[in-house]
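Students often ask why inverse folding is considered easier than folding. One informal answer: many sequences map to the same fold, so there is more than one right answer. In these notes we will look at a single instance of the problem. The structure comes first.
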């Protein structure tokens, strides 16, 4: 019989969703650790609560990713241009320690760099992160020793970010804490975590999503503003949130979030903008001026065209495509039979930015991992996408090995790399397609099928529609949930215990 404590817990809140009962892949994978978890772990009455387990798994996987970089740490970063690619262990971090003036003690944005770069080409908060790591790096020893320590210091700081991401995703959907394992076990997450400093912005964005799910609009805005001060992509989340709040009539909460984001971004950026404008603006001018680069479908077009488009043309076309994607996502939100979940639209808008951008660095997958888990927590679809990203991760390094190995031609030729790009694009489009299908057919949405509306939506969760278009604009019938028609329960993989009356 269940204990009195477990009974009281069940009376206070709905039972957590058990992935091993609704997801065949999760059920099969659980056999590797002895089968599905028991009720004590599900209800958090054990020492091994979901948050603790997932945080430890995330740290363990991050450590394995560090081990994967061992061949480069032992010398490939310093003594062989192609070997760091053949071992697939490249990282920007050690190279930029000297390349961006940290070894000489130059102050980012204020001190000019030797060479063509002139100033650090990263947003301000990321520059602060890089500078803080350089303060913790001893200035003694050879430059190779300093670069190794600098990478290790950054890896330690980024590991904290990885744990924060896993914990925030675990806690965003209250009844689905074990979905956080998708983040913790994502192979592309572990492989790309220490290539660059993207995890800082991803951690701040995941924390912002958690705050919004708790109805804390101001905290969401502040964290999203800080994330945008570390990387540009988080600001995109304000777009789908605007349309969702429009449909739900939640203007006050949106205004609070927007104000918090603007103030937080300005607090970080204004001092540097005022005292070192040229250095501050380098990130934005560099992004505009850089040509077509690795990983994008623009590179596919350029490499397979006799007359590749100019940078200016690509800038214009990429902007037009992104605007069209924004219009499409807004139309989807306003016409869907039931208001989409925030995480679904957040994933789609960032995926659209990645797919239309001039460059796709392998670590950009980190932007999507937590959003993908919240948008579509289905192991099969997530792993299909992850396999595609791992193929691309290996493909870009093998291609660079081919181009830097001279006459030896070790690695992947251009045609093979183009295939890797296509695999990445198709994998991302596939995940976008199933998310769009979930929006148009809410009965296929695994989150709503288990009885929730929008657990990441905060004030949007269960709110009635104030404005909608098309079929979504009709008044709800008696007994229908607010925000659209009801979800049909009892889909494939749903157990009787997971249904709500």
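Output (designed amino acids):
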């Amino acid at each position: 019989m269940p204990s009195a404590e477990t009974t009281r817990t069940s009376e206070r809140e709905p039972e957590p969703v058990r992935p091993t009962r609704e997801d065949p892949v999760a059920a099969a994978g659980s056999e590797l650790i002895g089968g599905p978890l028991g009720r004590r772990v599900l209800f958090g009455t054990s020492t091994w609560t979901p948050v603790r387990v997932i945080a430890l798994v995330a740290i363990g996987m991050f450590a394995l990713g560090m081990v994967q970089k061992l061949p480069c740490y032992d010398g490939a970063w310093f003594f062989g241009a192609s070997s760091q690619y053949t071992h697939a262990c490249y990282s920007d971090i050690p190279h930029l320690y000297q390349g961006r003036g940290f070894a000489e003690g130059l102050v980012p944005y204020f001190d000019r760099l030797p060479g063509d770069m002139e100033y650090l080409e990263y947003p301000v908060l990321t520059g602060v992160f890089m500078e803080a790591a350089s303060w913790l790096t001893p200035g003694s020893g050879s430059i190779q020793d300093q670069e190794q320590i600098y990478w290790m210091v950054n890896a330690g700081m980024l590991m904290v970010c990885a744990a924060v991401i896993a914990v925030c995703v675990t806690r965003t959907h209250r009844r689905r804490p074990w979905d956080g394992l998708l983040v913790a076990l994502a192979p592309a997450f572990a492989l790309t975590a220490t290539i660059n400093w993207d995890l800082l912005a991803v951690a701040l964005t995941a924390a912002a999503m958690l705050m919004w799910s708790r109805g804390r609009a101001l905290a969401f805005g502040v964290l999203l503003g800080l994330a945008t001060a570390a990387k540009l992509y988080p600001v995109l989340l304000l777009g789908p949130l605007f349309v969702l709040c429009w449909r739900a009539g939640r203007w006050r909460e949106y205004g609070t979030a927007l104000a918090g984001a603007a103030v937080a971004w300005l607090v970080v950026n204004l001092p540097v903008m005022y005292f070192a404008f040229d250095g501050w603006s380098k990130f934005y001018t560099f992004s505009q001026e850089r040509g077509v680069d690795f990983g994008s479908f623009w590179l596919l077009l350029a490499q397979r065209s006799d007359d590749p488009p100019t940078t200016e043309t690509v800038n214009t076309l990429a902007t037009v495509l992104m605007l069209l994607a924004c219009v499409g996502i807004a139309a989807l939100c306003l016409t869907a039979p039931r208001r989409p979940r925030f995480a679904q639209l957040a994933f789609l808008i960032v995926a659209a930015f990645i797919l239309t951008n001039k460059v796709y660095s392998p670590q950009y997958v980190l932007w999507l991992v937590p959003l993908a888990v919240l948008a579509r927590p289905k192991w099969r679809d997530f792993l299909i996408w992850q396999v595609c990203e791992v193929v691309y991760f290996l493909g870009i390094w093998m291609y660079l090995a081919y181009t830097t190995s001279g006459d030896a031609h070790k690695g992947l030729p251009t045609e093979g790399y183009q295939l890797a790009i296509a695999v990445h694009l198709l994998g991302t489009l596939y995940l976008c397609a199933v998310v769009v299908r979930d929006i148009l057919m809410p009965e296929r949405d695994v989150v709503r099928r288990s009885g929730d509306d929008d657990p990441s939506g905060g004030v949007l969760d269960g709110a009635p529609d104030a404005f909608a278009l098309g079929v979504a604009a009709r008044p709800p019938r008696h007994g229908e949930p607010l925000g659209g028609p009801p979800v049909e329960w009892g889909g494939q993989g749903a157990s009787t215990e997971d249904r709500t009356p």
